[in-house]
Amino acid sequence: MSGAPAEPRADLPALTGIRGLAAWFVVLYHIRLGAASYLPAGASFALSKGYLAVDLFFMLSGFVLWLNYSDRLRRDGLEAVPRYLARRVARIWPLHLFILALTMIFAAILAATGKLNPDHYPWAELPLHLLLVHNWGFTSALTWNDPSWSISGEAAAYLLFPLIVLAVDWRRLPPVWAIAALLLLAVSLSAIMGYNGAFILDREIPRFGLLRAVTEFSMGTILCALWQRWCSTPRLTASLAAALAAGGPLLGFAAGAPETLVVPLFLAGLLLAVALTADHEGNPLAARPVHYLGEISYSTYLVHFLLYILFKILFVDDPGNVQPLLIGLFLLLTFLASAALYHGVERPAQRALNRLFDRRASRRPVLSAAE
Question: Taking Cα atoms as reference points, which of 177, 178, 203 lies closest to residue 260?
């Protein structure tokens, strides 16, 4: 089987779609306790695992960056790194800073009214959050805008990515060696967390979140290289291979393997299956409404936590029993806020920073908006 790279792709719409669904899984995870009194047990259990969508985010990020940047970084070497990093800054920092500013205003209001919880809004840690290094082992708890811990982990993975690309071209390895590297990363993550008494991926995020982000991001780069090898093979064969890759970890879970091992391998198989079937006609993950949820998913992810706190203050008497109508209202507000932030803050700021970086580098922009 040829190891030649596939034609460059800026985006696989199905991957954008699944990112949107994953973002809403996180939203439902954070509001599930308010609906626990009337949710079926099975639904409550499923939503209690919503934090696992973040692990999919990490893999997706590694996959997409390998797809868009590996060839250029390898071709141009260190010369391409500043422009790559500039694109990453434009992608994640503006919206993060905007939501953090809103959170600071909210904390100032709480402080003025004597209702501030200083443990959750520690002013001394703000520089770490501004620089997106707060989950690099410098803090001991999730504070300010809690979901931003994963963006901090992403920032570290972005810095590591050029080193991965320049160190190894996964496509040139025989598939069996690439898969072995994938397994080694998953086993290492599970072993390190297990050695320290953490058998659930969501445990001790300030301690293990960075490791979780970097490891799963690296797994995503390998998955993209495998997709580049196999995307030209008959879809049925490729889909079957990916289904088996996902089914194996499920058997491991049934046999008692820890979540820290089973879930990353399952998500790897799932992501590969989605990528290999991305071009199927009528793929629901590529449908325009689902794709749009993916486009605004970063805004959804960053705004929903603060928005839910505000929503409960304004409209909810009993946070442990939020009525279905109010849950529906919150979900609608989250969607509207996500769309407004995407079109009014995230994309304009990204474009403006990209233009600024390009002018400073004295080159015309050549990268797609999806990057």
Answer: 203
Instruction: Write the pLDDT tens digit of every residue in 98-152.
Output: 999 999 999 999 999 988 888 899 999 999 999 999 999 999 999 999 999 999 9
Q: What is the pTM of this model?
A: 0.90
In a domain, 367, yes or no: no
Among candidate residues 65, 59, 64, 67, the one with its CA nearest the CA of residue 22: 59
Helices and strands, counts by H and E, the chain:
14, 0
Cα 364–chain centre separation: 29
pLDDT value of residue 353: 93
What pLDDT band is residue 358 in, cutting at 50, 70 and 90? confident
- From 107-111, 225-229, 275-279, 295-299, the region with the lowest mean pLDDT: 275-279
Query: 198 in helix, strand or coil?
Result: coil
Q: How many domains does the chain have?
A: 1
- Whether residue 371 lies inside any domain: the answer is no
The dihedral built from the CA positions of residue 359, 360, 365 and 368, taken in this order, carries a sign that is: negative
Three-state DSSP class for 294?
helix
- Here the tokens at position 366 are 């050549």
The verdict on residue 247 lying in a domain is yes
Burial class from Cβ neighbours inside 10 Å (0-12, 13-18, 19+) for residue 347 reads: middle
Q: Work out the pLDDT band at 344, boundaries 50, 70, 90.
A: very high
In this structure, is residue 297 part of a structural domain?
yes
**Whole-angstrom Cα distance, residue 328 to residue 310?**
15
Q: What's the CA gap between 225 and 237, in Å, rounded?
A: 17
End-to-end CA distance of the chain: 29
Contact in structure between 53 and 331 (CB atoms under 8 Å): no
195 conformational bin, left if phi > 0, alpha if psi -120 to 50, beta if neither: alpha
Match 């003025």 to its residue by tokens. Answer: 112
Q: How far apart are CA 264 and CA 261, in angstroms?
A: 6
How does residue 246 score in pLDDT terms, banded at 50, 70 and 90? low
Q: Which domain holds residue 192?
A: 13-361
Q: Residue 63 in contact with residue 275, Cβ under 8 Å?
A: yes
